[in-house]
Amino acid sequence: MFPIAIIDLGSNTIVLEVYNQKKETIYHESVPAHLIQYVDSNRLMSQKGLSIAYDTIAYFKEYLHNHQIQHVHIVITEPARIQNQSALLSELMSFSYPIYPLKGEEEAYYDSLAIEANHPDLKEWFAFDIGGGSTELIHQTGQKKELYSIPLGCVRLANEPYSLEQLASILRKTTNLNPNLLFHKATVLGIGGTIRAIGQVLQPHIISPLLKATDIQSFYQHLLTNHFETRRLIQQYVPESRQPLILPGLKMILSLIHHFQISEIQVSQEGIRQGFLHSLLKQ
Q: How many CB atoms neighbour CB 210 within 10 A?
């Protein structure tokens, strides 16, 4: 069965990860495809976007073929929620890999499996996963999960600027409809490339840093004022393709901090790919 390859087709990046029998990553490659930029206001992906998705998988296939990796799975997150999903699936079916188009709550579910596997001692926790086109929220107490997906991520926020007040209003409506998302003094984990990039800037050389909300707020203010040292650190530690997404991603994180009264965030290295892998191995 091993090695197992998972292709994570997201709205900002398309990622290939290959795992060995110990569930360790033995190969990782990320392509900044920015597919969400090719989705119009009617939620239709253009032919150019469809072609970029196809070409990226074809590029990964060359590596997989050369290394004789046969167990390959394609997981599609936010791009699976476009109106012309069938066109995207049609583009990818020629590769003959199993394809899993995920709803927002399913994406949050796989995030939760990754957290469970890597933090088995946590009895209650809250996690958020900020992607390019959506943000997943998870509150787990024991075996009870509350899963929710908001169709706003860092790429979408970069293209459709929302104020902190507008984001706060969205979160209020979300928890009014889903009160079980609210928590008290639970461990908070941040998932995704944006929070990992912020962690790299605020606490370089620490793999999974614990970030204070006050430091994140200061970082945001420094970005707004074009603080020289902050910009230098971003250029040093954050990939160029992700740098424009730091500010919109920060706005969503700050909205979560204020709404849920979060004091600190544990940056998680796990996410949907690891959760999906755990699910595969249970089958």
A: 13
